Amino acid sequence: MIKRSGSSRVAPADDVFAARKRKPVPHEFVLDALAPLGPETRPMFGCLAVYVEDKIVLILRDKPAPAQDNGVWLATTAEHHAALRPEFPSMRSIAVLGSGVTGWQVLPAEAPDFEEAALRACALIEAGDPRIGKVPGERRKRGEAPAKRAVKKASAKKAVKKAPSKKAVKKAPAKKAGKATAKRGS
After folding, report:
1. Residue ranges of the alpha helices (H) in 13-110?
2. CA distance 166 to 18
3. What is the pLDDT of residues 44-85, one digit of tens each?
4. How far is CA 176 from the centre of its chain?
């Protein structure tokens, strides 16, 4: 029997080996539609990011708040919005990403044509439509700004190429000379 620390309650042995319960996949029909492409999924922002090859193409979201942003998020850019709008009339910017137009757009789950629009987006992804999908940038360490990382890399390169300082050069011969005189005196 296994006992939990700080409690007199005895845990059944099955609790130890129980698999962690996973959240249900939001809008799973989207993954079914993309199955021929072999999509990969990764958690992102409490949602599920969908990747095809090296591109992030969608994020599937179904969270309690704010519910207005639930649905299928399209990875696109502002330059493609006008071209995508006729195909996705309910498409709009994502509120949780701030006010104004964002590169990411949502096909809202509350729209009457949600499933049809999401499947149309999957068909465009399968066809290789360049308007949907982004190659993510290089990952950086948590809390590190992109500019800091570039500065660190540049300073690391300079440190490798940097010659010894004048102080180090002056001290080195003096030490050798001192050792030589000490040896002669003994």
Report:
1. 13-17, 28-34, 81-84
2. 65
3. 989 999 999 999 999 999 999 999 999 999 999 999 999 999
4. 55
